[in-house]
Specification:
With 189 residues, the protein is mostly helical. It is built from nine helices and two strands, in the order H-H-H-H-H-H-H-H-H-E-E. Helix 2 packs across helix 3, helix 3 runs antiparallel to helix 5 and helix 7 packs antiparallel against helix 8.
Length: 189
């Protein structure tokens, strides 16, 4: 239970991954389009705020902060996201490759976690090891992309998000990260 309390932020992130994975499984195209539109709306609001702040600032402050150009760029980005969200959906395979690379990096980090647990004599080192193997296998499948359609790729990505998050929660709860100190450092293993 202490491992769960200590790693609340990590577990919350895992629960968010499960939620996103479920939404991707339910309706990947609508979910992705909705997220892009929400991001676009946020960019529009942020752009307007920067533009208003530019005109409320002194001329010197306005010139130094460049809020007008930043605000205009955010407005343009927001408009593109809101009006052309389908473009992002069409480029999803590229975004999925980036996600595959992120999973690959995560798997390598889990190998480090496994090795650290082994070196410190932790009993449940096999949990992060199993998670690392899954991460590396999922990354390979995503990067090789053997799927016939983008929708199947999205569904697989949703499944990967869910499985990865569940493995990570189990690894945190059972294997837990433990605080170890040496002469100069505090290490979480």
């Amino acid at each position: 239970m202490r491992a769960i309390q200590k790693n609340g932020g990590s577990i919350l992130m895992c629960l968010l991954e499960i939620f996103v994975g479920v939404l991707l499984l339910i309706d990947p195209i609508r979910f992705t389009s909705s997220i892009i539109v929400v991001i676009g709306a946020a960019l529009l609001i942020a752009g307007l705020v920067l533009i208003v702040r530019y005109f409320r600032a002194t001329p010197a402050e306005g010139a130094l902060t460049q809020r007008l150009s930043k605000g205009l760029l955010m407005l343009l980005g927001g408009l593109f996201c809101v009006l052309r969200s389908k473009w992002f959906v069409a480029t999803f395979p590229l975004l999925t490759i980036l996600y595959g690379v992120a999973i690959l990096i995560s798997g390598v980090g889990k190998i480090q976690w496994t090795a650290d647990m082994l070196r410190f004599g932790r009993k449940r080192w096999y949990m992060p090891a199993a998670s690392a193997v899954c991460s590396l296998a999922f990354a390979a499948v995503i990067l090789l992309n053997p799927f016939t359609s983008t929708e199947i790729l999205w569904s697989f990505t949703g499944i990967v998000l869910i499985v990865e998050a569940v493995f990570d929660i189990i690894a945190i709860a059972l294997g837990g990260k433990h605080r170890i100190t040496d002469d100069d450092n505090i290490i979480d293993v």
